[in-house]
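Reading a protein record of the kind used here takes only a little practice. To see the layout at work, look at the sequence and tokens printed below.
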Amino acid sequence: MGSQTVQSVQTPLVLVPSCQRVLGRHPFHVVGQKYVEAIRLAGAVPLMVPGASEAELSALLSVVDGVLLTGSPSNVHPRHFDEDVLDERLPLDPVRDAWTLPLIRAVVDRGIPLLGICRGLQEVNVALGGSLHQAVQGQPGHMDHRADEALPVEQEYGLAHAVSVQPGGVLDPILRGLDVRQGDEVMVNSLHGQGVKRLAPGLHVEARAPDGVVEAFSKPGVGFNLCLQWHPEWLAASNPVSLRIFEAFGQACRAHQAARLGLAHPG
């Protein structure tokens, strides 16, 4: 019976919210290919969702086994943390904001595995009651974490600085024993203008940049969740840090699926 139940487990579904783009003269829903491939690398099937009403959201969360919040050129609108827009030239995506913020709260409430990347980290912090620096580079003592778009993309997404992994969290054991880890530090890329200003209540800092910027956090006690300010999805298959992160996410999604279906966890 045990072997039969293990075989009944299918590849888990991971919900990926789309961004909104105007291509030519028409609006489109888009998700970056690198995120889709990283979800597949984790052993899951990506399910792109353009938006959802409250009823649709409940239906979706009853069948998915993970959620990945992607990075994006757009910023989280500062009205969600009671500020005015600092730079009107920067892109926003109010359609994404309108449904991902309640999505995040529902995912946390249900204990569904959650991985947030760049904008995704910022969305989670705001959804749970935190705030953001709209321009990290403008803060005293802070580095300029933005991408240099004049560089070839391979250099733009190249390793930029170390992060110090904090003990007692989710990320530390995931990265333990890696050859590329030097003490508590690993190298990451850096492509963001916004960053954590006030951390939401109940979140645990998982990693910091040399200037103190929060580079990763989690929310303890609600199942697997990890939010990263850098971009682990970039060439993930050849990056040992990224591989460990997506393997852990995939394992959490499989465990959630097994629990949801009442089946033995295949490991």
